[in-house]
Amino acid sequence: MFSKETYINRRNQLRKQFNTGVLVFLGNEESSMNYEDNTYRFRQDSTFLYYFGLNRAGLYAIMDIESGNDYIFGDDFTIDSIVWMGSQPTIKEMASSVGVEHSGAVNEFYQKVKSYPTDKVHYLPPYRPEHILKLMDALGFNKEEVKKKVSIPFIVAVGEQRNIKSEEEIKEIDYAVSVTAWMHQAAMRFARPGMTEAQVAAKVYEVALAEGGDISFPIIATINGQTLHNHYHGNTIKEGQLFLLDAGFETPMGYAGDMSSTFPVGKTFTNAQKEIYEIALRAHNAAIDMLKPGVNFRDVHLQAARIIFDGLKDMGFTKGDTDDAVANGAHALFFPCGTGHLMGLDVHDMENLGEQYVGYAGMPKSKQFGLKSLRLGRELKPGYVLTIEPGIYFIPELIDLWEQTGTNKEYINFDKVNQYRNFGGIRNEEDVLITPDGHKILGEPLAKSIEDVEEERKKAFLD
Amino acid sequence: MFSKETYINRRNQLRKQFNTGVLVFLGNEESSMNYEDNTYRFRQDSTFLYYFGLNRAGLYAIMDIESGNDYIFGDDFTIDSIVWMGSQPTIKEMASSVGVEHSGAVNEFYQKVKSYPTDKVHYLPPYRPEHILKLMDALGFNKEEVKKKVSIPFIVAVGEQRNIKSEEEIKEIDYAVSVTAWMHQAAMRFARPGMTEAQVAAKVYEVALAEGGDISFPIIATINGQTLHNHYHGNTIKEGQLFLLDAGFETPMGYAGDMSSTFPVGKTFTNAQKEIYEIALRAHNAAIDMLKPGVNFRDVHLQAARIIFDGLKDMGFTKGDTDDAVANGAHALFFPCGTGHLMGLDVHDMENLGEQYVGYAGMPKSKQFGLKSLRLGRELKPGYVLTIEPGIYFIPELIDLWEQTGTNKEYINFDKVNQYRNFGGIRNEEDVLITPDGHKILGEPLAKSIEDVEEERKKAFLD
């Protein structure tokens, strides 16, 4: 936890955005796996963590703008639960530790909310079913009303505030990214032909847990890197294949790191792998070079797309005018996702509040295949933290679909593409802070060039 | 997955328990951590797994008893999601793979349920908030009605059927227990003074993940074994302390193992630790020896309690007549929990259906402190799988409470107890099958005697 003053200051800054009304914050509950008391690890709501810092299930908070009073609600533990869980601070003690004077039991939260007219109550979009049930109870809404009546001013105020990372947050994220780099380094120094993907993922997870935190999102550890959100770890990995790892550390305070690396399952890359890896890395480095205040991230993305399209043109996969091709989304056959996203307490920061507000400042988002998956499309400001992760993927299902429908056929040499249909995917990913003058790559360095990656890979084969 | 016939046979056996009505099965959804798409690992509902075997989020099933028709509902993936997740079988193909002829989309599930009078619809107790919302939508009930109108006949039929494990289930559980033993062995051979609890827990987790499964419940890895459900892993472990590990493997099919072990952080136990360890182990072995069909597990528990009370009497912690003391619950100062619980697809098998029905066959459960935490109190039958895990704990908060209130003061020497108030806790735990003639301990053996544990510990200090 940060100091009491940090949370008081954050709440005061938020309070200034409102003249009237009541802000309601729902802390998260434990999440059950296969019966109520068998739970996943607890993850507190990030906005609750940001303004109240308390990492315990079953809490609620209210900021009453007019009275200036802040409240925390929760039920104290009984002696029975102390036997099972050890002694615990009271709700009053917890509230006081983050500078909140008023506290009460859960039923008092419901009484308090019901004491206001519903149109004065601001709340954020529910992303867990428990949030919907709680808001239905507190406000007397049905499920559809709960979803419809979220507060846009609350979303915008939280989004703008959390988007600018403070010095102490940057230090915490830098640590998250360093541990993330260690996780990737551990995989590079461990994976060998004949292992399963699960064995490599397990080693990566061990590093995160041993550090006292957890993973910031489900680990992608796969020889099928072309499947962007692939969580299957059942394959045995073989010489000649590429291994794509996308994994990040979450600090005990909840801040995320997020990196991707791609390395050969054997000791060295093949020539074809090297050629395509170099294109992806060129796009990656060019994107990072562009980062500074005032630049629209959409332009960073499109520049990465152009470099990828150009590189693939040199290899014969694509053809035609690069600017036209990218304007038509032809690069998205190989690069159907975005160049990066905001990162902070969430690995996709504030995705629960809506990309439209947080990543696009309310501006319209493209509906074009590829570009519609870009999560960040606004002007960068000092204090933003974001990922850079352009990639090149050969997705057989997508190749077939585009070929059958003739999509962007003036820009794609399908014969050549089909020769590489089982190539897989390549992505590097780093986390970057926007500084007043430019940018800074966060965390300790991880091998990224072909030479450095192959150097790390040697260590996996030492004994 | 088991064969198609296994699932067909299980459903047919269930169907025989009903003459009329409709059985509704809710598969689980993905569970969100900090925003909708950042999810915990998926855990399917165990009853859904048992009858339908499909391990994918967003499925629903119906068994219409009168027509004899079974249905599976879910939404097929779109081409967009195939790009992100790889190609996937259709709902129709999945249904067919487990012998279900009828399938449809999610909205058809709601239409189907609404086509029956609500009093013909049987459903099991909801344990996730998403279940409550779905049942509200499908049945037009409010939250309280959903909780009140669960089907006792459905609970009892599922409980009785799932309680008797088949040959193929026993094989799977035996494997789960073997991996569980490897997890414990890895910890014993790894932990050293100066490490954190988290480092040991991470090593244990790695073994589970590398095997391609996961953990069956949150790992307890602590020098504060007296706190029964302690998930804090932040302490640095020191020479002279006891380390208590309670952890289990979950196979990819969902079956659980669950073992506990207690070992010295240094190479050897102290004399005091040895004395108390021997008492706990004596109770453990005596409890296992009693296991056979026809024995009521409550008697096994009370026998373990008597051995613990007797052993502690020899050491001067307790006094008076053992039978009277145990009848009055005096042992519960040191042993406030149960000797074991049923285990299968859930580590506490079917805890979501209610212990009252599954573990007590509808018989009344004791309200006495200690005995009320016993999860199993019925006659054992061949095919039951259960844990044996008596323990001895010195819980400072509980000692103070009992001393202040004079609870069972005729049986407790509080002066002596207070000398050990920082001793910690000791527990061994194994998983046992009830056979027609007696019992069988499942899985590969794990060091349990003081000599064997100290032998394992030497390996942690080899280099």
TrEMBL record, chains A, B:
Enzyme class: hydrolase
Family according to the record: Belongs to the peptidase M24B family.
Matches recorded under SUPFAM superfamilies: Creatinase/aminopeptidase (SSF55920), Creatinase/prolidase N-terminal domain (SSF53092)
Protein name: Xaa-Pro aminopeptidase
The protein's required cofactors: Mn(2+)
Record-level GO BP terms: proteolysis
Domain Aminopeptidase P N-terminal intervals: 2-132
EC number: 3.4.11.9
GO cellular component: cytosol
PANTHER family cross-referenced by the UniProt entry: XAA-PRO AMINOPEPTIDASE 3
